[in-house]
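Extended Data, panel c. Modelled sequence:
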Amino acid sequence: MLPALATSPLERPVAAVRRYKWLIAAVVMLAVAGGFLATRLVTPLYEVRASIMIASESPMENRSGPIRSTGLLTSDDWTQLLKSFTISDAVVRRLSLYLQPDDYAKDAGLFAGFTLADRFVPGRYDLALDRTSKRWTLSVKPSGMVADSGAMGDPVGRATGFLWILPPEAFDGVATRTVKFTVVPPRDVAVKLVSRLGTQRQSQSNFLLLTLQDSDPKLAALIMNTWLREFVSVAATLKKRKLVQFGETLEGQLRTAKRSLDSAEIQLSSFRVNTITQPSEGGPIAAGTQETRDPVIRSYFDKKIEYDDIKHDIRLLQRLIATSKDSVSGEELLQIRSVASNSAAGQALRTAMTDYHTAESNLTVARVGYTDEHPIVKDLTAQVTNLRRVQVPQRAAELLASLRTRAMDDSIRIAGASENLQRIPQRTIEEERLRRVRDITSGLYTNLQNRYSEAQLAEASATPDVSMLDTAIAPSIPTNNTAPRILFMAIVGGLGAALGLAVLLDRLDGRLRYPDQVGADLGLPIAGTVPRIPKTGVDRNSPEQAYQLVESFRSLRMSVMHSSDGRSVSLAISSPSPGEGKSLVAANLALSFADAGLRTALVDGDTRRGALHEIFGLQSTPGLTDYLAGAASLSEVVQATNQSSLTMIPCGTRKRRSPELLTSSRLPALVAELRAIHDVVIIDTPPLAAGIDAYSIAAATGGLLVVLRVGQTTRRMAAEKLRLFERLPVDIIGAVLNGIHLAGEYAYYSYVPGYEAEDEEPGVEVRRVP
């Protein structure tokens, strides 16, 4: 049994294109016709080009050249200035682009000198010229209200803000003439112009390229050149204004700097006059002064160190006296530096401490030889106590008082010396500060004076930073002729839409088209394929057609034989709907089995519209319905054909109750009897959509072969009909794809020509159901 072939992703789209080729051609032709019509309605555009150069250097920083001003804007900002409304509005007003006559070629001369006041009324107007009476009437459309009227030479449209006087030649001739025109706000026109102006500048480039497209090449060139002139003029005006403002600013800064410099010089002069008699660190040194400066400073710091030592000794003495209530420790007193000094208080304290230690030593010696009650010991003990508790503390208090007096004197001297030393740096620093202020103010004043002089020179020779390099010239050939592109897009778009429509229709098509749909949607293997037979039948002069047809039924016969596992073949052949070729397949498959030498019985089970007897030239009665009704025996209904191995049972007499006859027990008995005397039993059934006939016959045979016609079978209906076999004891052998084209996705189902069998068995004919 042949498996369903896996298709390439492109096979289905290619097959859809092949199937809907005429629809695709029609859609493409319609698209081409629409594109051609669109080209008639599109006006070709002409593009004018111009370029300007932007000065990028900063001449103020280049001292080798003439003195000039810095650039007005950076290179990137020039594009913004170019597209500003200051320039575009001026271009619109200068060229009167806000005025749009309906017939410009005829009425252009009448609008010479037409301008707008600051306030005007935009809209559509009709100017009626009565050339006989030399009068005019201006009316507003669509209301038709008269806005103004007058005689030749009178201003036209004063009430609507028009500054316009008709030329005398406007009244030449007779009868009445109507001039139609529209006045648009200049800003609206400027916005559209700016959107149409293209700019291009490479990074770090000094050249700005401009493009403008319009249907009138001369008008486009005029607009571009006017735009460039207005741009250069505005740039020069802005540059001049910038230089004037820059000079005025520098002049004010220069006056302020001059006042600051005068004030700094006066302050420095006053300070030097007031301190000229006082010594200064940076002034001239008198004889002997240098030698006295270091000793004075050294003496100050020596005295400062001595004062710090005295303060330290005072703190130690105060703590020692405060912590020793009855006596002062001699060892701790000797650690104080002032006790060892040569002062009278220090010497008195040291003497008292010496006497104390001597008396204490004598007391120790006396206690060795005497008791504490001895008079000598008592005298020494009293002496030691007096020295420790009275003499030593008293001398320590005297030393503390002496140290405090010295500390007070030293602090006064140090303060005086410190004040004298501090005055010199203050005067020096103050003088240096005043000099620094004077120098800074002088430098600022000099710098501003130089810049002011340069600004005056730059103002006298001011030049704009931009210049026109290439002016616009009206082209003679359209730059943007969209007709070929529109036609090409129409062809491409039409082809794309046609292909998309073909693929969409293919996806929405519910009929069987491709081999993979048999397995994916119906769940059936492909048992065989039958090529399409022309309406006139197989061309006997075309061996290729006969060869492909014969080989297809041979392949189908092989699939059916191997599905029976060596047993006799008994199967029903049906299709979901009428006209799908089930009878053709049944007849030719039976002939193929008979040609192989197998005893074959072909039964026409289509009791409603069976016509197999016509293929073999037999009578329709008696037949199957007669046998099932008991009106005829098996030998009476079996008819021989011109193929010796093939016999046939026609459909028999058509009856209303033939479906009930097919469900009777006589049908399985008939099948069993036929299988007993035949190798192959094939029953052609009505379509599955006709009723229960096919299901009853398939249940009786036990096997079913489903015929599907490519391009005709509805997949959804076939799937629903086949689903009923899930509850029946029927083995569905597979599907037979009928009416295939041996090309495209079905090319692999064909057979290679050149291998035909030379000796075909005589009498094999391929017949087609009419």
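Residues 1-5, 58-68, 284-293 have pLDDT under 50 and may be disordered. This feature is highlighted in the accompanying rendering.
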